[in-house]
Each structure stands twice: as C-alpha cells, then as structure tokens.
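2024-03-11 09:14:02 INFO worker-7 job=invfold-0412 stage=load source=structure_tokens
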C-alpha cells in the first residue's frame, strides 16, 4: 500500500491542491462581502506570504539562497499570481466572465506543451484524453450566459495570457527543483515577490486597508488555505510530471462548484454541472491510471 501511494503521490497532491484552492476561493468570497477585490487579493496574498515566512526556519536552509533556483522562483512571483490574476480580471472586464473562463481553461494545454516540448516528458494517450476531458468540463462550466460582444480582438490575449503565465510558472518551478528540491522554498520566494508587487500596486492606487474590517479574518484564513494549496501543488510538481499535475489542478473550478452546491449552498445542480462531473471524474481517473 505505501508503494501504491508513493506511485500516485503526484496525483493525490494535485487533487489536494485543487480542493484546497477551491476552498480558499469560497472563504475569500466571504471576506469580499466586506471589502473590495483589490484589497482582498492583497491581504490574502500577504497572509500566505507571512504564513510561509513564519514556518521558514523549519524548512528553509541557508544554502538555498545563493542559487540559480532562487532567481527562477523569483521570476515565478513576477507573474503568478499577480500578473495572471490581473490579466484574468481585465479579461472579465472586456470579454465577460463566460468567454474569459472558457479561454482560461486552456491552462492544461499550455502545461502539456511545456512538459512535452521543453522538459521531454512523455505524453500517453490516457493523459491526452484525460486532459481533453478536463478542459471540456471547464468550458462547460464557463457557459453561464453571454458577455459583452463589442470587444477588440486583442482582448482574447488576456485570458490566454493568464493561462500561459500560470503554466509558465509551473515550468519554472519544475526547472528550479533540479537545483533546490524544496517545494516550500519555491512557494515562499515566489509569494514574497508577488506580495511586494501587490503591495506596491495597492499603494500606487492610494487605497487604504480597513484593518478593523470584518473581512480581515476571512482573508487571512483564505491566505493560509491557499498557502497549503500551493505547497501541495509544488510538491506534486516535484514528484511528478507537468503533463500529469497541471490538468488535475486545473479542475479546481469543478471543485469550487461542488462546494457551492454541497457546502455553501450558493448554487444548485444543473445539467451543466452533471455534464462537467461526467467529464472531470473519468478524466482524472485516466490521468491517475496512466
């Protein structure tokens, strides 16, 4: 049994990351009832960063700092989550949530291209079919009504860019593990850079943080949960291939939908939800069995 679990550790860690990220989104949404999205984003990124630094004496070695991997992990922080999230936000503003979510569902495709084309990973037929099923499910979940029709053609690059940079972050993280095999250090460095960028942008907008807001607790809790999610994701990337991990992590919107239906009671089960379930579950099983 331990050998079986070790063989499937990347899949289990990727699933755990998807579940935790979906839970963090739901908790973050509770906080957004008391604050604007920009402030909520900054506070939850900051909470994740502080969480990592508080535990760093247990996981970070002095030898990690003066390495090329540190630069790679810093590079990840330059565009994930700050840049990718902002591109997605601008995409929603110009294209509407439906088209943005649909194009953002191409993240597994970029992950597969990076893994196979740049890292020489093997792409089996089950992984290919499973990835396609998960992407199809994300597209199905995104179709919830039309968005604005009068948008420039270049605006399509916004959600595609968000998907590209998310997958690019996975690639750089995976490459960095060849020198510093520490999922914790990778997460801490990248989030430190992202936190600095988010704080700088918040200051430029001259926004103030309401420290006594009732949403503060939810933002901090979301940040801690998100920190565990990213750590699980990095661990999956460390132990497994990008072509296996990224498609499974990308099914997080499906988990978010399940939590909305079963736990938070914000949504009801629809035909679209059932169809997505029939696509995601076999897709994840195919990737796991491959």
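2024-03-11 09:14:09 INFO worker-7 stage=emit residues=290
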């Amino acid at each position: 049994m331990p050998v079986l679990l070790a063989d499937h550790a990347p899949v289990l860690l990727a699933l755990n990351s998807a579940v935790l990220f979906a839970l963090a989104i739901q908790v973050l949404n509770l906080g957004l009832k008391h604050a604007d999205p920009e402030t909520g984003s900054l506070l939850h990124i900051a909470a994740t960063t502080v969480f990592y630094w508080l535990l760093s004496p247990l996981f970070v070695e002095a030898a990690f700092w003066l390495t090329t991997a540190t630069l790679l992990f810093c590079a990840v922080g330059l565009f994930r989550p700050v840049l990718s999230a902002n591109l997605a936000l601008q995409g929603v503003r110009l294209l509407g949530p439906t088209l943005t979510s649909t194009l953002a569902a191409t993240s597994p495709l970029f992950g597969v291209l990076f893994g196979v084309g740049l890292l020489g990973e093997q792409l089996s037929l089950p992984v290919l079919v499973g990835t396609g099923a998960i992407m199809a499910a994300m597209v199905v979940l995104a179709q919830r009504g039309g968005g604005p029709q009068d948008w420039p053609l270049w605006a399509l690059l916004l959600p595609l860019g968000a998907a590209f940079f998310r997958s690019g972050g996975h690639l750089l993280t995976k490459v960095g593990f060849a020198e510093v095999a520490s999922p914790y250090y990778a997460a801490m460095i990248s989030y430190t850079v992202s936190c600095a960028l988010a704080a700088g942008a918040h200051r430029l907008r001259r926004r103030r943080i309401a420290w006594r807001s009732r949403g503060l607790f939810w933002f901090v809790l979301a940040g801690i949960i998100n920190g565990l999610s990213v750590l699980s994701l990095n661990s999956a990337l460390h132990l497994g291939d990008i072509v296996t991990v990224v498609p499974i992590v990308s099914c997080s919107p499906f988990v978010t939908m399940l939590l909305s239906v079963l736990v938070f009671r914000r949504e009801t089960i629809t035909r679209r939800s059932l169809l997505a379930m029939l696509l995601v579950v076999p897709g994840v099983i195919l990737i796991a069995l491959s």
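2024-03-11 09:14:09 INFO worker-7 stage=report msg="Residues 2-289 form one domain."
2024-03-11 09:14:10 INFO worker-7 job finished
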